[in-house]
Amino acid sequence: MSAESLEIAKTRYQLGKAAFENGQYRESVENLEKAIALLNRNSRLGGEVGIWLVTAFEAAGRTEDAIAQCQQLQRHPHFETSKQARHLLYILQAPKLVRPSEWMTEIPDLGVLADNESKTRVTLSAKKSSGQQKPVEPEYVDLSQVNTSDNRFIWIALIAVGLTISYLVWLSF
């Protein structure tokens, strides 16, 4: 393996990791596959790229490819890589649990928000101009009904702040 192909592989590896961390899983898979093709799969770096490729496969929805990659990495000569591959394979082959829909929170697609933004403004301004919406009036509080007799905490806090400030001024001399 030449030094040039090793540098290209390292660059592809870094690009693949960055794409994965930015949620671009397909791009991550492409870069990691290109990196691992340039490396010796039995090297430490080859195993590290392989582990990242497993997670990228899974994130991209390619679970079968992730499992196949894990099975290859289980026989890797570096202990840490084979250990990680066994753990990942255990997780990937675990039965999928069915969660009730009420446990799930649906995240709205914000991509359609830009399309609907102009429609929303038009709709809101149309309601305002047609006079259908009443202005919101602030709620007034009758101060004679407010219980102000239990304000000892405020006085204690003010005294504590005053003592603290005077102590700090005394220390500065």
Task: Describe the structure in your own words.
This protein is mainly alpha-helical and 173 residues long. It is 65% helix and 0% strand. The protein contains seven helices and no strands. It is elongated and about 80 Å long. 18% of the residues are buried. Residues 122-127 have low confidence and may be disordered.
In what range is the share of β-strand residues? under 5%
Instruction: Provide mean pLDDT, rounded.
Output: 84
Main sheet properties: none
| Helix fraction bin | 55-70%
- Extended strand count: 0
Query: Ends: how far apart?
Result: 71 Å
H and E order: HHHHHHH
Looking at how many chains there are and whether they match, the oligomeric state comes to: single chain
Shape: elongated
Structural class: mainly alpha
Low-confidence stretches: 122-127
Tally of DSSP helical segments = 7
Radius of gyration: 31 Å
Structure summarized in a few sentences:
Helices cover 65% and strands 0% of the residues. By secondary structure, it is an all-alpha fold.
Topology at a glance:
Blueprint: H1 3-21, H2 25-38, H3 44-59, H4 63-73, H5 79-92, H6 113-130, H7 152-172
Helix pairs in contact: 1-2, 1-3, 2-3, 3-4, 3-5, 4-5
